[in-house]
């Protein structure tokens, strides 16, 4: 177990479920991820953010056995993970994908049942072909799958084909299917992409509910409001390297994060100077327009 690993920042005594150390992933001459350490503690929700191409999905792929890191290790509950994705799922890590990967022509219920195959003795093909072994286990599996559909709010759609679900519900179904493997850690890759604000809020509540069931969560997302309202801790990846890590408050107020997201290099220019420049320009514009205008343009009022 991970009792002697370094406690995750901000969570003091909580044991790490995930411990990625020195993970580097190279594709030929391109280093997509460089020497990244990342932990997720028991019961923690951790966000992974960064501009497009920063290496977030590559890091997920290294954590789920899709890629074998060029260097470094990924451990789950103190054991180094195998580099086969189905064995990683079996070990206790489940994930969703940036581009939804459902069985489009299977029903909602069948999609969740397939997600259970790592936890049944019958295996994927038996589940798909509905062989005799599968039928024996079917009642238990179906009950569990229905629980998950209730949990994600999809129970009424159990017999709908996955491809007919609205986009937001397809993303929920991906989460239900991932939960069917009974993970200890859930990795979500852009779970709110393409969602409207109501769906995004519902997803946040769903992730909190997942955590309340004792499942730790690592989530990639570009929606900063979602991330900062959801996560206990956030790590920022830029050009493959971890730039900043900390609580949402710490990360949001870090100039390097702002610079990375605005795409402007951080050069250590004193923030006050920029603010003064803007205030001076506003004052000059206000003076020019002064005579005919009733609009108050400058709250500070000093030049
Ligand atoms: N299989 C691959 N072969 C070669 N290069 C790859 C491969 N996968 C990713 N890359 C490259 O690695 C870099 C990181 O990509 P990655 O998809 O991990 O970024 P990301 O942070 O997830 O981006 P986004 O937010 O746009 O999804 C990119 O330059 C990408 O082109």
From TrEMBL:
Gene3D superfamilies, per database record: P-loop containing nucleotide triphosphate hydrolases (3.40.50.300)
InterPro entries cross-referenced by the UniProt entry: AAA+_ATPase, ABC_AA/LPS_Transport, ABC_transporter-like_ATP-bd, BCA_ABC_TP_C, P-loop_NTPase
Region listing for Disordered, in residue ranges: 282-303
SMART domains associated with the record: AAA
Residue ranges of every copy of the ABC transporter domain listed in the record: 18-264
SUPFAM superfamilies: P-loop containing nucleoside triphosphate hydrolases
Key word Nucleotide-binding present: yes
Swiss-Prot/TrEMBL keywords: ATP-binding, Nucleotide-binding, Transport
Pfam families, alphabetized: ABC_tran, BCA_ABC_TP_C
Protein name as it appears in the record: ABC transporter ATP-binding protein
GO molecular-function terms, A-Z: ATP binding
